[in-house]
Structures are given as C-alpha cells and as structure tokens.
Amino acid sequence: MPDVPTIGDALLEISGPDKPSRSVNIDQSPFLIGRGRGNQLQLSDGRISRNAAGILAEDNYYIEDRGQRGGMFVNGKKVTKQALHDGDIISFGLDASHQLVFRTAASSATVAHLLSRIENITHDDSSPGGLSKINLLLEATMLLHSRLPLDAVLGAMLDHAIAVTQADRGLLLEANPKALFTGRLARGSKGVPIPLENFCPSQTAIGLAIQRQSSVITEDLNRDDPNLNRDDPNLQAAQSIISQRLRTVVVIPLYAMSRANSAESLIHAEHGQFLGALYLDSRRPAAFSKIDRQILDAIASEAASILDNARLVERERERQRLEQELSIAREIQQALLPCGLRNFPHLEISGTNLPCLAVGGDYFDIFPLSDDRTAFLIADVSGKGLGAALLTTMLQGALSGMKMGADPVSVFNHINRFLCEHAEVGRYATMFFGILGRYGRVEFINAGHPSPLLIRRDEVMEPFCEGGFPVGLISDASYVACNSVLDPGDTLVLFSDGVTEAMDPNEHMFGTDRLRELLLGQNEVPLDSLQKTILQAVREFSRGANQADDITLVLARYRGPTSLAAA
Fold it and tell me: With contact defined as beta carbons under 8 Å apart, do 492 and 454 qualify?
C-alpha cells in the first residue's frame, strides 16, 4: 500500500490579479480553497465560489471540485477529482483570475548518487545494465529539471552525451529570434568547459540536421561506406570537417513538445517549436549501437524539455516582473486620484474608480478653484491597460493647470491639438468637465462623454448632451463652454461607459435606461449610499461576468448658497 504523503511537504504558488505572487504550505487535509471565510486559502475574487475546491492527502495529493461555478481545471482540463503532480496548474475557468501551481518537496535521492550509478554502467550492449541506462538517465534528468541551476542541468546533459558517444567535445546550440541559433555552452571530455568562441562546429552538419528536422549521425567520415554514413556525402568535403580532421559528427535538433512514435528515433516525431541542437564531434571513428542511439535520443528529448521549461520559467519571470511594474503603476495612478474627498460649503461630493485591469483608462478629479467655485471632471481614454493609464496621467497633469487659473476652453483645445499632432499615441479621450459656483451655475465642457444624469426631485434628466468631439480625435475640433443652473438638492451623476455598458452573461448591456430607473427617488439618499447602490446594481446585473471596462462614478449634490453663507 502506498505511503500517505506527509502533510506540509507540498505547497501552492499563488498568482492573482493585481497582487504579488506568494506561496502557502498545504498543512492539513482537506486543505480548503475558496472565497469564503473558513478556507485555508481564501481568494478575494467575487467570481470564485465561497467553497470552490479542496486538496486531499490520500495515497497522493488530489484536487477536488467542491462547488466552483463553472468547474475546476488542472492544466486547462476540467476535473472533478484529479491527482496532482509537481508543476500542475490549477485554475478556475476565469480570465484574469487566480492561478495556483502545485509544488512537491525535493526528492530524497541525490543527483550525485544517480549520476554515479550512470557512470558505472558498462557500455557493453549485451550487459543487462544497458537498457537500464535510459531509465536511470531519464530518472536523473527528471530530478535535475528543477533542483539545479539551468546551466548545471544542461552541462550534466551534455557531459552524458559526450560520455555515451565517447566524443571529444560537445556543444549545445539554442535558437535565437535574431539568428538561427547561438551557442549556449560547450564542453570537452570529462566535463572540461570550452570557451564558445574557440568552438567551430560543422555548419554543414548542423544545417543538414535542421533542414531535415532529424538527427545526423556519422560514425567514420573517412570510410566510404553507405551503410556506415547514411547522411549527405557532402559532409566529407565540408571545410570545417577537413580542417579539424573530424571523423565522427552527431547533430540532433531539439524541438519543444516532440512526440516520438518510438523510443528509437526522433526522425518521425511530431515537432513543436525549434529550440536548438545538440552537437558532438570527435577525431576518432565511433560505432553507435542501438542502445547508444536510444540514449542519445533520450538525452536530446530531455535537453529539449529542459530548454522548453527554461523558456517557460523565463516567461513566467517576465510576467511577474511586468505584474510588479503594473502594481507600481497602479499604486501611482491610484495615488493621483482624489482621496479622502471632502465636501465643500455649496457641494457634497463622492467618487470611485474601479479599473478592470491592473491599471485603467478612466479617472476623475475634484478640486476647488476658489472659495465658491469647485471643478469636477471625469475622463475615459480609449482602450485599457498601461497605454491608457499613461495617457490619463498626462491628461491629469494638463488639466491640473486649471487650478492656477488657466481657461478651461483653451486647455481643452491645447490637449486636442497636442494629441492629434502626436498621432503615434493613437488614443483619444472623452471627458466631461464642470465648474459649479456658489449660486448653482454650472459651466461645463463635454468632449464626447456620456451626459451626466441630473436627479431633480422626482425626475431624472439628461441636460448636458451639448458638446464636442473627444480630445485627440479631430485635429480641427474646437471646444466651447456651455452653462446650466442647478437647484438646491440637485444631484449630478457622472459615469463612464463601464457602468452603462456592463454586460450580463448573455451579453445584454446594463444601459442608461436602467441607470435612470435606479436613480428615481434617490434625490435625498446620502451620496455614499447612492454610490454603493449603483455599484451593487451593476455587479448583480453582471452576475459574475468579467468586468470588461473601467467603472468610474462621480456624484455631486448642490447644497445651495445658504450653506455657504452659514459656513
């Protein structure tokens, strides 16, 4: 009966939206995962069920679906209960949600012990240890995958290939996006490093292997025997082979996710991405047995797997670096938004911004221009992500000039010309900017933004439709300021299209009409409560569908001039 795994010898690596990666030990069974309290791993994502999954320690570690909406997935495959292996990726079937990577503890067997066993096996084909070479080599390389530095792993693989072929030297070539390939590392016999600049491989043999997408194995280039040298006879005439007096050359191209039809050859493999090549040569002739070729193929397959895994690791590190940078960008962007909003003598104010990605293209601002004039604005940059966020920051800096008395119309015209002149930016922005004075007069500029809604007693109106084009869209657009007047108690509701264009799972939009109905009778509700009501209505309407756009709200309620006088 298999041993029950020891609790605590496995962990989960957790990556989630807008949060740094972390890890947590699996310290009990069942180890519960979900959104709700009481789970050992609590994930803050409204789309993940309160009780989503559990990890059980039986004869192995298992992941079990315990009620996740839409199902639980391991390596992209939906499962009900599945044994876990090192490196398995657990996800929840949701875009931009949490991802868990299952990790086991290190094996108790040491690499040195396994490698010494391989070295002690005889090279005799008739030896009963001959076939076990492959198994031991694969066992060692599987352990090497994640327990040694990458170059040490690849060096060990190259050393074993040299030992099997009794070659004088070996070279690992890695595919490079800017060229066909570059040298990764070179070794001589007994693991002696060779400077890459001193290694001159046969380009003819390498080119032939890549062209054929199969191994080139020559045993004696000085013998004119078609049964011995089945590859292109031009190899014998290649300048690099003649000048270096090479007798044996082996080149095995490496491909990601190659699936050989047999253990004997990679010739008929279904190839994935080209990763590089394993190159070996010698000034002595060689005789490769069937087992030698099997081991070479095994080494090549493992080297390809290691290179492929290394690329995946590098991509993951790049992803984590980008996530960290996005997290910093998000912190900067959020810091630029008004926080701790205060009410003004003639005006109550509330606002929020919920980006759909780490950083967003919406923003809002509220700032006083004088004791009795307050400016407020909302903006929505085309697109999402980092590019939109950079433009919002630029717009925020430009519009802040109004605090120093700049004319709003002149500022809007300048921003529009600037963006149109820099067409490489490739973005535009809709904006609504207003200045509310002591006596309820609103001076506003609408640059293609949805009209704010006005709650006046028992009505909901849309009186601010007059305006122009988004900034950055039409180079000769000209902006003008319009005027309106608010009554005491009037409430303005400014919103981005992330509110009205929020979709349910059936792709129906929330819409302006639904928002208007929601606002009816809300003229005396505190602004914080009204803001929560709107956001909750959008969430309930979406019913777990992904937030496809940034959501921004600004609520402004005119108190009237008496409030200012009393102050």
Answer: yes
